[in-house]
Amino acid sequence: MNPITIKLYLESDKWLDAMNSEMQSMKDNQVWCLVDLSPKGKTIGSKWLFKKNTEMEGIVRTYKARLVAKGYTQTYGVDYEETFSLIAHVRAIRILIAIATFYDYEIWKMDVKNAFLNGYLDKDIYMV
Asked: Would the CA dihedral through 120, 124, 127, 128 be positive or negative?
């Protein structure tokens, strides 16, 4: 076996654990429910995204796996009407840092393992 195949084999359990953790999190947060496809239903594909979070020394800290929808298969006006992506503006971050500096607060970084929006869909989405 070549070195890349060996490395992937040795990491396979870590990637499977990351995938199982993602699926369990989605189940716990009731992100989806299993249903039969309606006659007029159109399916949207899905794929796994994999990422390693490393420390500054290059040591792998965590393995992350995310199941995402292939949204590029949808058509605007047919499958969806609007999109939304939550982002932080640089101005807001600068203001928070200025306030923390003024009041001599400590700033801590936090990694949210799974963040889900509290939005509700008014259409059924069928993902495979």
From this structure: positive
